[in-house]
Amino acid sequence: MNLNNISINPEERRKMAMDYFLQGYNCSQSVLLTFSDVIEADPKMLKIITSGFGGGMGRLREVCGAFSAMVMMAGFISPADDPTIKESRTNNYALVQSFAEKFKLENGGSVVCRELLGLSKTPVQESPVPSDRTAEYYKKRPCPEIIGNAAKVVAESLLEK
């Protein structure tokens, strides 16, 4: 992860993530692409890796894709890549839990897509066909704000590092 000579302005990163979503990227792609420069990752690869996380994991409306991207970023910020180092995993899980707490605080108390969207609390099988991104779609979705909040929380964490 490269923090040298990179601007980590939480409000700028928030706007960047929201802009990605408004360009048509899913919630997970929007957050992770916002930090491609920081994690020194190929944007095309990030788009591919995160492609199934939209709509709460393939429109299952489970864990929000923006939050899923935050969890991925926790892996870059506090890696736990050696299973023999329990302290690393503990630190990583602590960061994920901190992200969850902040995400819930910013977004109405949940990390679950269907709850964030105000849909039925009971899982319902939705079509895998993504919604068309129309002006009406954006009017009734809190997603840009949720995505922006997620990116802001990650950026603030990077500043603390």
Please give a quick description of this structure.
This protein is mainly α and 161 residues long. The chain has ten helices and no strands.
The low-pLDDT segments are none
Shape: globular
- The total number of structural domains is 1
User: Would you tell me the structural class of the helices and strands?
Assistant: mainly alpha
Tell me roughly what share of residues is in helical segments. Answer: 55-70%
Number of helices: 10
Q: How far is the first residue's CA from the last residue's CA?
A: 11 Å
Largest sheet: none
**SSE ordering:** HHHHHHHHHH
User: What is the overall pLDDT average?
Assistant: 94
Per DSSP E runs of 2 or more residues, the count of β-strands stands at 0
Radius of gyration, in Å, reads 15 Å
Q: Which percent band covers the strand fraction?
A: under 5%
Properties at a glance:
globular, 161 residues, 0% strand, mainly alpha, single chain
Structural description of this entry:
The protein has 161 residues and is an all-alpha fold. The protein has one domain. The protein contains ten helices and no strands. The chain has helices at residues 10-22, 27-34, 36-39, 43-50, 54-57, 65-77, 86-106, 113-116, 135-139, 143-160. Helix 1 (10-22) runs antiparallel to helix 2. The longest helix is centred in the middle third of the chain and has 21 residues, at 86-106. The protein is globular, with a radius of gyration of 15 Å. The model has no long low-confidence stretch (mean pLDDT 94).
